[in-house]
Every structure is written in C-alpha cells, then in structure tokens.
C-alpha cells in the first residue's frame, strides 16, 4: 500500500481508502459477518482509511465498523475513521447530539475526521453556527480533523471564515473518470490550500468498469436504479470508455478497477479515492490500484476518451 498525509496534518492515510456506504440497504451488505470480512481484508492489505457516514443504513455502517474494529482486535490508532454528519443535523446542539450517537455506534471516544455531509439546503442553519460547533468538538478532543462534503468552493470559503483555531483538512467530492466536474474549481482549490480530496464514487458506481450490460442496468434494484449514469443515453457512451479501460487493463495486466483508480491518483497527489466494496475480492482488487502508474500516453488516452462523454443528468 502507498500512504500519503491527510491535508496539512501529520496523519498518515492509505492512498486508497474503503468506502462503507455499502454496509446499508442502499447497496445491500447488511450482514455483519460480510462487512467484517470486507474490513478485515482492507486492514490486512494496509488500507487504514475507512469512510462512513451517520446516514449510511441509519447508523448500520458505523455500527458494523465499531463492532468489527473490536472483534478484529484492530488498535484504534491503526485506523482512521472518517464519518459525516448530515445536513439536517446541523443546529448547534444537534451537532453534539449526533456526534455523541456516532461515537457510541463506532465504540470509540474520538472521530479522526468529521465532515459535514452536505450543506443544510432546506433547514437554513447559518454556516458559522455549525462550523463553530465542529470547531468546539475539535477543541474538546472528540474530533481530530474536520472536512466538508459536497460543498462548492464559495461555501467552503464561508465555512473556513467561521473558524478561529483550526482549518478544513478535507473536501469530499464526487470524482471519477466519467464525472470530472471537480477539476474546474474544487481540486485546484484543495491543491492551493493544502487539503486532501476524498473522491467518492471513484468507480462511477461500477459504470466505468464495463461489467454490466444494457439489460443488467434495467434490472438494478439498488441505488443505481435512479442514477443518471445508468440511463441508456449515458450508459451507452460510458460503455465505450469502459472498453478502453478494459484494453488498458489487459495491456498492464491489471483489472479495470485498478486502471480507473490509478487514473484518478495520477491526476493529482491530493486525491484519495474511497471505493466501496461488496466483498473482500473487490477490496483486494482496489488496493492493487497503487504501487505503479499508468504511463503518460495511456493516461492521456483515457483523459481524451473521457472528455468525449456528453453525460446528462436530465434523464426524465
Ligand atoms: N460524500 C458523499 O456524498 C458520498 C456519496 C457517495 C459515496 N460516498 C462514499 O464513497 C464510497 C464509494 O462510492 P460508491 O459506493 O458510490 O461508488 P464506487 O466506489 O464508485 O462503486 C462501488 C461499487 O462498484 C462495484 N465494485 C467495487 N470494487 C469493484 C471491483 N474491484 N471490481 C468490480 N466491481 C467493483 C461494487 O458494486 P457491484 O459489486 O454491485 O458491482 C461496489 O458496490 C461510498 O462507500 C461512500 O463511503 C460519499
């Protein structure tokens, strides 16, 4: 495993993390033993960054992680837990209440990285109200570092303005070979400000791997049934990109997932992909995305092919 430093901290994190949204009904890993096997494989391979959220399975994901850490005998210092507080829980007192519950589910007395999951779109909580609550949690030792998920640059700036003792260390954003909007503002902003980017859906929820047929995508029952990437007009284009990913995989004797993730880390050293996995084999596969690099010409070929995509989110 390769390691990097999170933001401006001295915290060492694996260059590939593990996304734990999969431990929920949304993705289907609802059996604790299965989740434990996935986590065990990640730790065995040197992945020390686990990304969860209070909302994943309404606490199920955090609960599974907390229990697995105990059952597997993982030392607390050896794992970096990244969790997120939903935009609905951002009233000042609610921030503390939500974090207390999260700590209980995670069976720990501190959170390494707490992110605001999304801006409070419809509750009108003033930005400084919740940012000051997060800062207080750091001062009180319940949280080590904070971050923002799905925030535009303007709002990240406003949020940082509210802080007096600490800064934002992480932006968590959607970033994959198909969806590259973050390259316009968010990634340059993170690079300029010494922040890490946790790249979510780094495999475009599997779309970029070309593992599903047009018939498969019509049968999806999980979160992908409503995802615009899996609508025919988009997916037909993505299949072409996936074919190139597969060709590269053959050339490098790697897997499509390893090619897709390696391309992301090649884009910038601030990017840390957090792929989700539904079994230990996928974890192992994803962990093999580091320790080597695509050469410049091949990186560019994928770059050009991905730039040709014309994805639309207006699918109804
Ligand atoms: N902050 C946010 O708003 C936000 C939003 C979304 C996600 N996230 C975080 O980001 C993490 C990852 O994103 P994601 O789960 O949306 O999508 P993803 O990582 O792009 O895709 C995950 C899916 O791809 C398939 N897969 C994974 N590894 C594979 C491999 N090596 N070979 C073949 N197939 C593989 C699996 O599905 P199948 O086996 O069914 O094909 C898996 O469930 C989440 O777990 C979560 O922690 C954050």
Topology:
Layout (H helix, E strand, L loop, with lengths): L2 E3 L6 E3 L3 E2 L12 H13 L4 E3 L8 H12 L8 E6 L6 H15 L4 E6 L10 H13 L3 E7 L3 H9 L6 E7 L11 H7 L3 E5 L13 H6 L12 H21 L3 H12 L3 E3 L6 H8 L8 H12 L9
Parallel strand pairs: 3-4, 4-5, 5-6, 6-7, 7-8, 8-9, 9-10
Antiparallel strand pairs: 1-2
Helix pairs in contact: 1-2, 1-10, 2-3, 3-4, 8-9, 8-11
This protein binds NADP nicotinamide-adenine-dinucleotide phosphate.
Quick synopsis:
The protein is an alpha/beta fold. It has a single domain (3-204, 255-293), classed as Alpha-Beta Barrel (TIM Barrel), CATH 3.20.20.100. Helix content is 41%, strand content 14%.
Structural key phrases:
316 residues, TIM Barrel, eight-stranded parallel beta sheet, two-stranded antiparallel sheet, 11 helices, 14% strand, binds NADP nicotinamide-adenine-dinucleotide phosphate
Q: Structural class given helices, strands, pairing?
A: alpha/beta
* CATH hierarchy: architecture: Alpha-Beta Barrel
Q: CATH superfamily, called what?
A: NADP-dependent oxidoreductase domain
Beta-strand percentage range: 5-15%
Q: What is the share of helical residues?
A: 40-55%
Count of separate structural domains? 1
Profile the largest sheet.
8 strands, parallel
| Average pLDDT | 97
Biggest sheet strand line-up: 3-4-5-6-7-8-9-10
């Amino acid at each position: 495993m390769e390691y990097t430093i999170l933001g401006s901290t001295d915290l060492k994190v694996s260059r590939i993390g593990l996304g734990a949204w999969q431990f929920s009904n949304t993705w289907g890993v609802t059996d604790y033993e299965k989740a434990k096997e996935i986590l065990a494989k990640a730790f065995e391979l040197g992945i020390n960054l686990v990304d969860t959220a209070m909302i994943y399975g309404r606490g199920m994901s955090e609960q599974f992680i907390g229990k697995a850490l105990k059952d597997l005998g993982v030392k607390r210092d050896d794992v970096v837990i990244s969790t997120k507080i939903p935009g609905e829980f951002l009233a000042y007192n609610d921030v503390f209440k939500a974090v207390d519950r999260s700590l209980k589910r995670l069976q720990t007395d501190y959170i390494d990285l707490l992110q605001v999951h999304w801006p409070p779109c419809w509750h009108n909580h003033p930005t400084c109200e919740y940012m000051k609550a997060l800062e207080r949690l750091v001062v009180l030792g319940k949280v080590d570092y904070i971050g923002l998920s799905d925030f535009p640059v303007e709002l990240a700036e406003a949020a940082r303005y509210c802080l007096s003792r600490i800064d934002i260390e992480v932006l968590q954003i959607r970033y994959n070979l198909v969806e590259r909007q973050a390259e316009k503002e968010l990634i340059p902003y993170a690079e300029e400000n010494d922040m890490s980017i946790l790249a979510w859906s780094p495999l475009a929820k599997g779309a970029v791997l070309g593992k599903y047929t047009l018939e498969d995508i019509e049968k999806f029952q999980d979160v992908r049934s409503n995802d615009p990437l899996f609508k025919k007009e988009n997916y037909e284009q993505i299949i072409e990109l996936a074919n190139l990913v597969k060709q590269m995989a053959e050339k490098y004797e790697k897997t499509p997932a390893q090619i897709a993730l390696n391309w992301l880390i090649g884009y910038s050293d601030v990017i840390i992909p957090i792929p989700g996995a539904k079994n230990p084999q996928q974890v192992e596969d994803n962990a093999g995305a580091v320790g080597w690099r695509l050469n410049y010409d091949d990186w560019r070929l994928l770059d050009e092919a991905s730039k040709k995509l014309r994805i639309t989110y207006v699918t109804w």
